[in-house]
Amino acid sequence: MNTHPYLRAFLAGVFLPTLLLPVMLTGFVLARLVLQVPFPIERGLVFPMALVPAGWGLWNMIWLATQAKLHQPLGLHGAVLPLLLLPGGTVVASCLGILQLGSSGATWFQACEVPYALIVPCFLAVLVGYYLIWKYLVGFLNRVLGIG
């Protein structure tokens, strides 16, 4: 009997972002409509909402496929994902006019400038967060589905 381990790996990877992104979208839309935040946050969320869950699922499938050769811990594998998402998201956001990179920081929606000195520690926190999420939550889902 074929147990479809890659399908189960994809479903385990997709589960968390599929649950969290609509909640985040609701928060951003409420911030835009209720709190009258002056820049269009939702414009920058459509692309991640479409690709992040699929990316997590594919990333979990890649972990499963390489597990026999590399024996890489799941948390470490998950912490590598933001290193791929950041450059890709930066390129897409720059092409869409959502993000402009300057000499001292990044400007979002031509309204909010974030200095690089703040971006770096936030990115490091994201790496730690991804490590923990992948190690504990995605690892739990993998074990539940019998692939971890």
Describe the 3D structure.
With 148 residues, the protein is mainly α. The chain has one domain. It is 71% helix and 7% strand. It contains four helices and three strands; from the N terminus they run αααβββα. The protein has helices spanning 5-33, 46-70, 74-95, 116-144; strands at residues 99-101, 105-108, 112-115. The chain has a three-stranded antiparallel β-sheet. The mean pLDDT is 88.
Low-confidence stretches: none
Helical proportion, percent range: over 70%
Number of domains: 1
Strand order of the largest sheet: 1-2-3
Q: What share of residues are in beta strands?
A: 5-15%
Main pleated-sheet profile: 3 strands, antiparallel
* Structure annotation, total helices: 4
Shape: globular
Instruction: Please state the structural category.
Output: mainly alpha
Give the SSE string.
Answer: HHHEEEH
Average pLDDT number: 88
Distance between the termini: 19 Å
Integer-rounded radius of gyration:
17 Å
DSSP strand count: 3
Give the topology, please.
Blueprint: H1 5-33, H2 46-70, H3 74-95, E1 99-101, E2 105-108, E3 112-115, H4 116-144
Antiparallel strand pairs: 1-2, 2-3
Summarize the structure.
With 148 residues, the protein is mostly helical. It has one domain. 71% of the residues lie in helices and 7% in strands.
